Each structure stands twice: as structure tokens, then as C-alpha cells.
Amino acid sequence: MAAFAGGKVSVRIEPTSGAVQIRAPQTRRTPGVAIPEREQLTRAMKLISELGWHDSDLGEPVVTRMMNASMPMGGGSKDITQSQDGVLITYKRQIEVDGKRIDILNGGGVTRVHMASDGAILSVSRNWRKVQSNQAVARIKGFEEARKEALARTGKPEAYKLDQWKFGYKEQAASDELQLVFQFAFLPRNGQDPMNTPPRLVEVSAEK
């Protein structure tokens, strides 16, 4: 088993969702010699495999560097030093449909490994329900149809422009069914008052 900081762990299981968190009691460490990112990824995958959490729905890892900054008493901005305090390695679930991998949106379908820079495991968590296909065929809206519907829901479609969008399955805590949705992030157009037209995140069903 991969080495947890301090050699011991506490395990917490959420009875409603089945989410699991395994956490080392020693979460603050004296910085050691940082290992390469490739080795961090290898250790994270080894731990996930040992826990029996590796399956075909596991997406590609996303590495987030956890940084901190310090400044001596009475120092100025030029005295600030930054250091890496570890990494967070996140795997999102992706479901394969007709040869394409579709993301799970929201907080479900995610596995995270929090690791010190020297490779010691600080915590690992998993919110990952078992998914079963019902073989139902859904008619899906086109992108433009969904975008126009989302813009209309802002109440001021002429005042907004598209910034980002996502398409995927939405996993909800209170339901065992995954829903196909579009999520659109809109920003006010140039010259619009941001107080009256604040940024909007609009979600619409992807099914006709």
C-alpha cells in the first residue's frame, strides 16, 4: 500500500451517497525533496488500483499544485517567497457512449488524491456511484438550440455573450438517474452595466 503521512489513516464513509474519504492524521509536513510529477502520478494511480477504485470510467488526471507564500515580519512584496505545499490529483468520471467519452458534471464521479510534494499521501477521496445503462435512446438538442434556450433564460439575451460551455451527464445527490445537460457561462457584452447584467451560469436539459 502507498505510504500515508504518519503511517495511519482515518476512514469516513457518507452513508447516503457512499462517498469515501481516507485521511492521514499528519496533514502538515516539513517540506521534503519534491519528486517529479510523473512519479506523483504513478504513486496516485498505484494507490487507486490498490483500493480497487480503478475502472474504465476513470478520466485523465488533472494535477493542481498547492502553493503557499510567506513573508518575514516587516518585509515587503519583494521578500515574499513561494513554495509548493503538495499536489491535488483529480480524476473525473467519463462515460463512453457510441465511442465518445462524456464528462460527469457537478460534484459526483470524482476521485481525488492529495499528496505532499515528496510523495507521501495526505488524503484520498472518492464520490463514485455505480452506473448502469438503461439502453434508452435520447434525442439530443443541437448546440445552437441549447445556447439560444439558455440565453433566453437570462431575460436579457441581447446583453450577454457566451464565455464557456460544457456538455455532459449531471449527477445529483438526491437522484440515481444521470441527466444529459448543457451548462453555459455568459458574460455581459461590452458597454453593459455589470451590476444589472451580472455573469450568469445557465443549465438546460440536452434532451429534446
Offer a few descriptive terms.
208 residues, 2 helices, mainly beta, 40% strand, 10-stranded mixed beta sheet
Task: Describe the protein in words.
With 208 residues, this protein is mostly beta strands. It contains two helices and ten strands. Strands 1, 2, 3, 4, 5, 6, 7, 8, 9 and 10 form a ten-stranded mixed sheet that branches. Strand 1 (10-13) and strand 2 form a beta hairpin. It is flat. The mean pLDDT is 84.
Quick structural overview:
This protein has two helices and ten strands, in the order E-E-H-E-E-E-E-E-H-E-E-E.
How widely separated are the two ends? Answer: 48 Å
How many DSSP-defined strands? 10
**What class do helices, strands and sheet pairing give?**
mainly beta
The run of helices and strands is EEHEEEEEHEEE
Radius of gyration: 21 Å
Largest sheet: 10 strands, mixed
Number of helices: 2
Shape: flat
Percent helix range: 10-25%
- Uncertain parts: none
